[in-house]
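User: Just a sanity check before I run the rest of the batch. Below are the structure tokens for the first item. I only need the designed sequence back.
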């Protein structure tokens, strides 16, 4: 069983730890610019991390694309690298596909051809992130699987992110590193499904996540904010579904480029995760700022199951039966302090 999508779901459901406020230690130090070390896979520490590089794109024609690269070490399955892509509102329809490969296909280059590549033996399957996140950073996903999928985009004039210290949150015995490399940047290129290939322009968001244990095994849900008109961008994990306590992660104020660490997350309906149509106000207060962020009018566009990219009916049913649920991403648009903002909310259903 080599399916990385299955591996990701298995990781999410490992036995969790009881989370208390004293268990969370935020990154220490000053705010700093992100470097190549924050982009590449961490191979220097004694601790082995599972890592995800996540991109969210919103195009001017109304289409959204969600793309992630990952490398994960899963007990019994070993280490695999994978790529997952989903299209929202492409010609009025939604599409998704996932690919998975052995660890030796994951290649990092730190010379003149700086980037990360999942190297395959077929010209019909091409996956890479070229250059460091910033101006000119290029992302490519090409596969002939199913009807065929293509994404080839390049960032221009992006707002660059920051991080505090080493970017690592210590939650009990576990560590989670979050690096918001591109809070927002213009993107241009082509996307396509089958022979229907179109030129696109829009905006993109990019983050890199490292973890010794899956974040959703340590938190009830995470909320990612992004978009061209969004005043803030970043990812917040909330440790308690009941009352919004024990949050970690960070967002960036796009006007000032300052980092905001969450103190408390409250919803108009504290049990909103038990009802998929939770569309109530969310209020976030901060550890390092007196301001409050209010997220209103959350409109669901798509509820995406990560199991949908898995192959094999038997595997899907076994996971649902054994785990009692599945990892979901609720995607849509909202208003943050009255400004249009896209969101992704990750949780276990």
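Assistant: Here's the designed sequence for the first item:
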């Amino acid at each position: 069983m080599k399916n990385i999508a299955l591996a990701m779901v298995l990781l999410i459901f490992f036995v969790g730890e009881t989370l208390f406020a004293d268990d969370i230690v935020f990154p220490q130090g000053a705010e700093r610019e992100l470097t190549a070390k924050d982009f590449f896979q961490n191979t220097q520490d004694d601790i082995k991390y599972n890592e995800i590089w996540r991109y969210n794109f919103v195009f001017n024609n109304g289409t959204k694309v969600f793309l992630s690269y990952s490398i994960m070490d899963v007990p019994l399955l070993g280490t695999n690298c994978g790529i997952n892509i989903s299209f929202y509102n492409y010609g009025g329809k939604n599409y998704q596909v996932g690919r998975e490969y052995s660890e030796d296909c994951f290649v990092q280059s730190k010379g003149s051809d700086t980037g990360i590549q999942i190297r395959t033996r077929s010209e019909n399957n091409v996956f890479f992130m070229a250059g460091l996140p910033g101006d000119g950073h290029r992302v490519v996903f090409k596969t002939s699987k199913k009807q065929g999928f293509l994404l080839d985009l390049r960032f221009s004039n992006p707002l660059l992110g920051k991080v505090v210290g080493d970017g690592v949150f210590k939650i009990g015995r576990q560590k989670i590193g979050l690096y918001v490399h591109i809070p927002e940047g213009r993107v241009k290129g082509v996307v396509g499904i089958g022979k229907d290939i179109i030129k696109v322009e829009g905006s993109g968001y990019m983050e890199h996540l490292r973890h010794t244990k899956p974040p959703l095994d340590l938190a009830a849900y995470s909320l990612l904010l992004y978009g061209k008109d969004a005043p803030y961008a970043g990812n917040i994990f909330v440790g308690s579904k009941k009352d919004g306590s024990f949050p970690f992660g960070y967002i960036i104020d796009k006007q000032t480029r300052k980092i905001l660490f969450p103190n408390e997350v409250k919803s108009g309906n504290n049990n909103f995760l038990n009802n998929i149509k939770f569309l109530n106000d969310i209020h976030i207060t901060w550890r390092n700022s007196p301001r409050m962020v209010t997220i209103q009018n959350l409109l669901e566009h798509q509820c995406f199951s990560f199991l949908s990219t898995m192959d094999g009916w038997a595997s899907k049913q076994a996971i649902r039966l054994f785990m009692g649920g599945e990892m979901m991403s609720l995607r849509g648009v909202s208003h943050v302090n009255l400004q249009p903002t896209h969101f992704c909310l990750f949780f276990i259903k």
